[in-house]
């Protein structure tokens, strides 16, 4: 690899090709951006800070003894640095984001405008309740929508994300079991092999023993397999529907009945709720608890750069055990119940210091109000249509592990079609970067070898889908022709080339060290 005078790499593939090397290492607008430690100075900064007044340290001798040593930049330098870094990122505003099981949909700017209204963006969790009546009304209305869309009894808004929501739902189930005096006997949770990895982790975290439900060749969980595992020791099942194979569980009602007949509870992983909003109500299917990723189903992909939100809806069987804090009405005025001792029911406790992420509440409710019931239903239909359009358009080149059956919001392919090509799932995904696309979800779910999980969401037009499909078809035909060089070193055109991810994970470099001076050659 060649280096320019500043020690920057100028080899082919670093910010473009090396057909015409440049002094800076930049390729027009594809600019090489050094680390801030390489361009900043300890002596200068774009901000003037007053000397602090004298004070007595209260850190027990652990306070810093030397200068912190952070590099400083002028304001223009700082702005350029972070803008250039942002240009190296891929996001939903850059192009189609095909991550499966993640619902990276368009985040309407209307939602952002509402979330930035002063009464919401400036609200503080320690404000007196009397000063946040509007925020409480937003939360109450959001709760009404979530309960209606799922046909459940109540909702806990405080969980911050999906896994946090799983924990909330399972803790409510555990509290209900203990209230019936079965806490010492019901200690097993059934988890399908195809489940999200957080499911068994959540169950184990709060003391349950995990018993797997085997995967079948058709991608569904079968009620007969569940019944074989049921007994007086089973507390619950954790089932994702639609599942992580992109399929709607066609025996979900029968599974729910079997679980309830055995005295257990049905926890539904709601990560894929985007596929069925307005089409199916999980409460009608027999669920007792389900988390909903507001930051996925109701826009703001993956938290929008901040905390997510994972409210948990609860059936009548679990509603009394919903955690504090929660909203209630006293003489027609909304207020918060913040302590378990003040509740008339049996909340299992508190999961988090404050209620939740107000920005996510506002964005989600704005999404719901702007779409309406018909719009949310259409969004689900369009998400499923788009996924099936990709499935059908690639069916002649890609292999599908569960047959050519319709999928839900995401389509799952495996690597059987890559056999003997010398190209792996990882190679194919890296080559997608050169085509200007973020890779799909790879190697998940684990029950499928070389899995490639694609979720286009409802946000994409037919034109954007057609271009994406054409790019994947071109890559597929290239792999089948044996053009391995296109894949083995990809990406070639990204700001940085392929990492040795195994080495990076095993021997991470956690501290920047100033390199030795780079001497120029003599004239």
How would you describe what is shown here?
With 523 residues, the protein is an alpha/beta fold. It has a domain at 110-367: Aspartate Aminotransferase, domain 2, CATH 3.40.640.10. The chain is built from 16 helices and twelve strands. It has helices at 36-39, 75-86, 109-115, 118-121, 133-150, 162-179, 198-205, 223-229, 252-261, 282-285, 294-297, 358-394, 425-434, 462-480, 485-488, 501-506, and strands at 154-156, 188-192, 209-213, 234-240, 265-269, 289-291, 312-314, 326-330, 333-337, 411-413, 441-442, 452-454. The protein has a seven-stranded mixed sheet with strand order 1-7-6-5-4-2-3, sandwiched between helices. α3 (109-115) runs antiparallel to α12, α6 (162-179) packs across α7 (198-205) and α12 (358-394) crosses α14. The model is unreliable at 1-15 (pLDDT under 50).
